[in-house]
Amino acid sequence: MRILFRAQKKQALTYAEMDTNLGSFFYSSSISHNNLYLHYTGSMDVPVNREPHVIPLASGTVQGNDKQIQFNDRGNLAGAAGFIYSGSKVGINTTRDSLTYSLEVSGSIRASAGLLSNSDKRLKENIYLIDNALSKVNKIEGVYFNWKDKKETQVGVIAQQVKEVLPEVVSEDKSSYLSVDYSKLVPLLIGAVNEQSSIIEGLEKRIAKLEQ
C-alpha cells in the first residue's frame, strides 16, 4: 500500500508500508527540506507549536506490548539505531526484545558531568556494614579481556565471580547474560580497605610493643 503526494516542484513525498513482515510505515521526501511539517491553523484539536501541548500522532488503542517509536539507519531495518518503548524503556543501538532496564545502550556513553545516585542516609534503613569485605575482594579477579565481537582490549571483572560474593551488584537479562554494576563495587572496596587498615594498625601496635 502506498500513498504518493506531489509537491509544487514535482518532488515526491512518499508514505508507504515498509514490509509486510514489519507492520510499520515510513515517510520520505526527495527534496532537501524537512520531510514532515505540521502547521496549526486553528482547526486542529491540539496546537503543535504551543507549550505544554503535544502532537496527537494517533488515536485508539494499540494492543499488546508493541507500542514504540523506532529509529533506523537508512537501509538497515534489521537492527534499530534506537527506539522509545511503551514500557518506559529506551534502547540505543540495540533491539527491543533484549531490553531489561529503563535505558540500554550497546556502546560507550560520554557525559559532560557526573552520573549521580541517591545516597542520603535519611532515605535508607536497615544499614549495616559489609562483613568479610577483604575476603570477598580476594575472590574477585581484575582481568584484561576482549569482547567476542570487538578487538579492543578491555579491563573489568568476571560477573560469575562477583555473583558468588556480592550477588546484589549482579543482574541477569532476558537472555540470561550477567551484568555488573561497577559503581556498587566501590562500597565493597571501601570495606576491604577499612578492614586492611585495622589489620595494619593492629600489627603496628604489636611491633611497637616488641620494640620497647
Alpha plus pi helix count: 3
Tell me the total number of β-strands: 11
Mean pLDDT: 75
The SSE string, one letter per element, is EEEEEEEHEEHEEH
Describe the structure.
- It is a single chain.
- The longest helix is centred in the C-terminal third of the chain and has 27 residues, at 185-211.
- The protein has 3 helices and 11 strands.
- The strands form 4 sheets. The chain has a 4-stranded mixed sheet with strand order 4-5-6-7, with no helix packed on it. Strands 1-2-3 form a 3-stranded antiparallel sheet, with no helix packed on it. The protein has a two-stranded antiparallel ribbon with strand order 8-9.
- It has helices spanning 133-137, 159-165, 185-211; strands at residues 2-6, 12-17, 25-29, 68-72, 80-85, 89-92, 103-105, 143-146, 153-156, 170-172, 178-180.
- It is elongated, with a radius of gyration of 27 Å.
- It has 212 residues and is of the alpha+beta class.
- The chain folds into 2 domains: 2-105, no CATH class; 121-211, no CATH class.
